[in-house]
Amino acid sequence: MSNYRLEILVKPRPGLLDPAGKAIHHALVALGWDGIEDVRVGKAIYIDIAADSEAGAVELAEAMCRRLLANPVTEDFEVSVVGALEGAGS
Amino acid sequence: MRVAVITFPGSNCDYDLYKAAQQVGEARFVWHRERGLGDFDAVLLPGGFSYGDYLRPGAIARMSPVMEDVIGFARDGGPVVGICNGFQVLCEAGLLPGALVRNASLRFESRDVHLRVERADTLFTNEYRDGQVLRMPIAHGDGSYVADDDTLEALEAERRVVFRYVDPDSGEPTPASNPNGSLRNIAGIMNERGNVLGLMPHPERATESLLGSTDGYGVFTSLASAVSALAS
Q1: Whole-angstrom distance, CA of residue B215 vs CA of residue B135
Q2: Where residue A66 sits, what CATH number does that domain have?
Q3: Are residues B147 and A73, on separate chains, in Cβ contact within 8 Å?
Q4: Interface contact B104-A23, CB threshold 8 A
């Protein structure tokens, strides 16, 4: 078993109105940034977990996303391993 | 009618709901860690901010032990009503389709709205008239109802939209009368079987003239008539 740090990105589904993204878009334009096509706001969740392999860790996180972390009606998710941690559990 | 009012950490409309339910039956609070709803004729999920709305409104509350029993109660045909946060919990639990997301205005909307009763032949609206316009309060930050097109079409075709936000003068759904950006001005829906209702407005806060409106009382009297009809 090794410990992995996972980054889970939970993103609003395409086509879904994202009022927070819209408000940030307006604020950026007001500050003088031109040419912004779109702003979408999601969230990042970091989980440290022990697993047999990188693929195994990702599989666990995907199960968590389906069960709790993302709402399939409104959100998509993406899981990546961002590090293997020292002091792996035995 | 024996009514369970489910209470989660962070529920804050539980007493309002209890008071409203007491007017038409015998209400009891059921803590989210309790199990078993066999003694009840109806189950109500109150508004509030269960678990601080962390992750998504209703997402953590949906994992509470009692929710297994709420799901079982609903599957057995028992009437279930979720109001505001309770509606969000029912969607997260898969008892109702779709989801409730951040208000289009990005503001917390706390004010009276007008709703049209889209059908008066349900367990929850039989004391109203078809097309009747009701005034009751809303108080939410995440009340914008969304669902994919197929789901919306099914809701309309099966007449499962129970309440819609409307203009009080014309009685028609308009962009201006929609307080949160809900698709098709949807304020409340029910499941296919017609025994689970979710709505964002607060009928329990419109049950006494002292509160400014009694238009919400019909939800509770409707439920009581439906339950006594089921029993006889």
Answers
A1: 6
A2: 3.30.1280.10
A3: yes
A4: no
Q: Are A42 and A12 in contact (CB under 8 A)?
A: yes
| pLDDT value for A87 | 58
CA distance linking residue B59 with residue B10, whole number of Å: 13
In a domain, A22, yes or no: yes
CB contact under 8 A, A68 and B148: no
**Which tens digit of pLDDT belongs to each residue from B145-197?**
999 999 999 999 999 999 999 999 999 999 999 999 999 999 999 999 999 99
The per-residue pLDDT for range B73-131, each reduced to its tens digit, is: 999 999 999 999 999 999 999 999 999 999 999 999 999 999 999 999 999 999 999 99
Q: How many CB pairs below 8 Å do chains A and B form together?
A: 34
Q: Which long-range contacts (CB under 8 A, 24 or more apart) does B172-175 make?
A: B173/B116
CB contact under 8 A, B102 and A73: no
Predicted local confidence at residue B230, as pLDDT: 83
User: Distance (Å, rounded) from C-alpha A20 to C-alpha A6?
Assistant: 25
Flag whether A90 is in a domain.
no
Count of domains in chain A?
Answer: 1
Cβ B99–A74 below 8 Å, yes or no?
yes
- Asked if the structure places residue A42 within a domain, the reply is yes
Taking an 8 Å Cβ-Cβ cutoff, which residues of chain A contact chain B?
16-17, 19-20, 23, 68-69, 71, 73-74
pTM of the predicted model as reported, rounded to 2 decimal places:
0.94
pLDDT band at A1 (very low <50, low <70, confident <90, very high): confident
* CA–CA distance, B110 with B107 (Å, rounded to integer): 9
Q: Could you state, in order of their start, the residue ranges of all structural domains in chain B?
A: 2-231
Q: Which chain A residue lies closest to B98 (C-alpha atoms)? A: A73
* Domain B2-231, CATH class in plain words: alpha beta
Query: In terms of CA atoms, which chain A residue is nearest residue B100?
Result: A74
For residue B154, list chain A residues with Cβ-Cβ distance below 8 A: none
Residue B131 CB partners (closer than 8 Å, separation 6+) = B116, B117, B171
| Residues 173-202 in B contacting A (C-alpha not used; CB under 8 Å) | 181
